Amino acid sequence: KDFWLNTRLIHQSGPADEKMFLARYNNNPRVEVTAYLNKIWEAYQWSDLIVARAGASTLAELSCVGKPCILIPLQLADAHQVSNAVELEKKGRPLSYYRKILVPKV
Q1: Burial annotation 55-77 (CB, 10 A radius, 16+ → b, else e)
Q2: CB 95: neighbour CB atoms within 10 A?
Q3: Residue range 12-64, pLDDT digits in tens
Q4: CB pairs under 8 A, 24+ apart, for 3-10?
Q5: How far is CA 17 from CA 8, 30, 33, 95, 101, in A?
């Protein structure tokens, strides 16, 4: 079965990477790449699964949404995003996260 048949993806890339991700998705009509989502709550509303970083603001939003998530904490020296994700998971929120650093194939 074709993966894209029933899939829609919105990728918030940041302005520096927007063109690169557009190229990587090969201008797939089911993928929207945007530098920034001005109405993120709309994307949360229609999402079945949310993949995000684990910053404090993002986790506050996701706590209100109650949707399943895959959190990929930004690996910073102080590891606060990893700590954020662990604390939210302890509270029984409907999410999971990767503890390992994901390295994309370039």
Answers
A1: beebbeebeebeeebebbbeeee
A2: 20
A3: 999 999 999 999 998 788 899 999 999 999 999 989 889 888 888 998 898 88
A4: 4/28, 4/30, 8/32, 10/34, 10/37, 10/43
A5: 20, 19, 10, 27, 19
Cα 42 from chain centre: 14
Strand partners, 50: 69
* Residue corresponding to tokens 């993966």: 3
CB atoms within 10 A of CB 85: 25
Distance in angstroms (rounded) separating the CA atoms of residues 30 and 37: 17
Q: Tell me the pTM.
A: 0.77
Q: According to DSSP H, which parts of 1-106 are helical?
A: 18-24, 40-46, 56-65, 80-90
Tokens for 15, please give them.
């302005």
Residue pointed to by tokens 């995003």: 81
- State which H helix or E strand residue 51 sits in: strand 50-52
